[in-house]
Amino acid sequence: MGYSIAIELTLKEMKTLRTLRNLALAGGCVILFMPATAQDNPKLSDEEVASVAVTANQIDINQARLAKERSKNTQVLQFAETMANDHKAVIGQASALVKKLGVTPKDNAVSRQLLADAAKTEKVLKTKKGKEFDKAYIDNEVAYHKAVISAVKGLLIPETENQELKDLLQNILPALDAHLQHAQMLQKQYAAK
Amino acid sequence: MLNVWVWGLFLPLIFRGYNPGTESKAPKIYTVEIREMKFVPAEIRVNKGDTIVWVNRDMVAHNVTEEKSKAWASPLLPVGKSWKMVASKNSAYFCSLHPVMKGRIAVQ
Ligand SMILES: [Cu+2]
């Protein structure tokens, strides 16, 4: 039973990763190998880019909240705290900017897909506790940050018209990268045990 | 006559250069910026007694914490805030919130 859950999560992570990567890479040769939903390079307005950015950050905050409920590991709890605080800070700055620009975030196929994938991941995470939860959560954070980094670089930045919004997205990348490395560091510690 | 003039002007300058006592005693202030999830510069060389100021110019909050035994640490540094410390010995430090952010102080 433990195995089937673990496999299920892995498949879902892969699916999230694949969805985001498809979105990011659509337009290139990968299209040939992709299911119907990902075939078109999504054309996003700045309103839609803003919605995707806020949604992607909110998902990580929600999962950090889950970690705070279910983990007892100090390092995992501290990581989750950092995720919650940093992604809140990013949302705060994104919200301030879109308000200034008069852009109203508009939900769209990409943000809806992110939410649907996150709901599945959260469902699986909720079946786990203790060390099993920690591993699944950290594995998912590694996969999620990789996926978000490639989506920001390959989809959101190229789709953005407004220079200030583009710069904001560009400025988020170092934090995402540090989060990814932090998650990978914790992942390696599990592998060593 | 001209010689005396020239020496009179230059000798003090030359000797000042050779005299480490007077100039290096005054403690200096160095700034380390925190931006794009990095300490810039990551390694700083100072004299004992110099002050180092860390300024958070990033998008998220950070801290500055001695790495080996947490011998010293700043409070949480929200965006725009700074914290200073008088350098006393060589230290490796990091941000405990983002442990991949590392820095080093070399005290001469
Ligand atoms: Cu930090």
Could you characterize what this model shows?
With 193 residues, chain A is mostly helical. Mean pLDDT of chain A is 84; it is low at 1-14 and 24-39. In chain A, helix 2 (46-70) runs antiparallel to helix 3 (74-101), helix 2 runs parallel beside helix 4 (109-125) and helix 2 packs antiparallel against helix 5 (130-159). Chain A contains six helices and no strands. The radius of gyration of chain A is 17 Å and the shape is elongated. Chain B has 108 residues and is an alpha/beta fold. Chain B has one domain: Sandwich (Immunoglobulin-like). Helix content of chain B is 21%, strand content 34%. Chain B has helices spanning 2-18, 20-25; strands at residues 29-35, 38-40, 43-46, 51-56, 65-66, 82-86, 91-94, 102-107. In chain B, strands 2-1-4-6 form a four-stranded mixed beta sheet, with no helix packed on it. In chain B, strands 3-8-7-5 form a four-stranded mixed beta sheet, with no helix packed on it. In chain B, strand 1 (29-35) and strand 2 (38-40) form a beta hairpin. Chain B is globular, with a radius of gyration of 19 Å. Copper (II) ion (CU) is lined by residues 62, 95, 97-98, 101 of chain B.
* Main beta-sheet strand count, sense and barrel state of chain B: 4 strands, mixed
Residue share in helices of chain A? Answer: over 70%
Taking the alpha carbons of the first and last residues of chain A, their distance comes to 22 Å
> Briefly, what CATH class of chain A?
Mainly Alpha
- Going by helix content, strand content and strand pairing, the class of chain A is mainly alpha
Q: What is the CATH C level class of chain B, in words?
A: Mainly Beta
CATH architecture of chain B: Sandwich
| CATH-defined fold name of chain B | Immunoglobulin-like
- Most residues in contact: chain pair: A-B, 18 and 14 residues
How many extended strands of chain A? 0
Q: Which architecture of chain A does the CATH hierarchy give at level 2?
A: Up-down Bundle
